[in-house]
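--- STAGE predict ---
source: upstream dedup step, 1 unique chain passed
mode: sequence only
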Amino acid sequence: MDTAVNASSYRHGLVVNTLAAFTGRGLAIVGGIILAKTMSPDLMGKFFADQALVLLGGGLINLGIGQGYRQIVSRNPALRTSYLLPTISLRVVMVLLYFAGLAAYLNYTGRISIQTLLVVAGTLLWSLLELLEIDLQILRNYIVVSVLIVSEGFVVFLSAVVCRQAGGAYNPLVVSYFVCVLLVVIIGWLMVRPPITSMLWPNYSRLIKTSIPFSAALIAYAFTSFWGLTYIRGVLGEQQAGYYCVPLKVYQLTLVLGMSVSGVTLPLYHQLAALKHFGTYSKIFSRLVRGMWFISGPIVAVCFFIPEFIIRVFASEKYMPAAAIFPWIGFAVVFRLLAIPAGNVFESVGRQWYRVAAQSIGAVICGLLVVLIVPKYGITGAAWTLFATDLWVMAAYWLIGSRIAPKVIALSELVVPGIVLLAMLLLCACPLNISMWLKLLVFVGLWTTYVMFFLDFKTEIFSLSKVFCHQK
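--- STAGE serialize ---
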């Protein structure tokens, strides 16, 4: 296998998918802004808490089979024909079973309604897009993947526009959300066009065995990401859940952006690990980490210095109680973004259970802290929980990864920039008689200079630009 060609294709895919991710997430952010400025906090809390109720069981919806499929087919692309249709079929069956189980639960708790069922069904359908995007990334059809990524953002944006035109009414929002998701899934199916193949059990057997650790990891990840919002809604009410939704959506959109970018590298990770080309692997890993550092600095600085402005842009004055938790959310974003590259290494070197163990401990930390802190400190306590959980996950991934993959992961790539980031933040936060905007500008300038010249990210930007121009 020609790894040089694969590396070049990876860079091209990274550029294309990054641009698509920014566009798609930008549309989603604009859609979220429209919703927050149109709807009351209690309706915001209802809509996103219904989504969280679905996503809380992410590992049960898909059994991790998308990641299992990627691991099998990335190492042997010839297996795509025999595995794609069984994988999609199993995923659809799990979506139907999960929908039936969730409907029964909602009926038992007295919370069932057509509105809730439409949000649940739309979110479950949305989960199918992940598998289609994974298959297209393996095939290196990055342009097609980009179309799907942008389409996902367009779903949120169009639904929000419909809601705004209807004067903030809830029914048009949920109906348009379901219809748009259904259309995007159909388009994705037509783009992938899975070949007709045998549905023999051995295909499912190997797929499920490979996917079990990914399912466990997804269960832990979904719990840490959505349990806080679900608990807030149940204990503090939909209005408090609505307040918490604003910083939480900023957090989630940023993570999805990071995962979209890093997902391009996973098929190549598998190939390089199988070939034991750890020198090339290490270079690609370092590039991805530098990219995460590059975007992490401005994110945490914006959350730290101007949280009130974020709320005014993303929502309205009604959501101002969430301002105090933005700095904690900003640091949590940094921790989780930096954890992504190290966590992906476990998958490619066949040590996925290490990631599961770290995430499981994180889920326990999250569950205990939410139950103990949120009733007393409200949504601020939920932000503290997210901060502590993501700090643990990042530290565990890097420490364990440096032991099982020392040729790839070096702790200096985490510790040194982290100290510099914290020092710059503290320096710029000094109580001087200048505006927060000026402090933000100074920090971003210092951080960009550091990443460009001391982490040599400028070379990576030039490299990506050249490859993209060549591919074009």
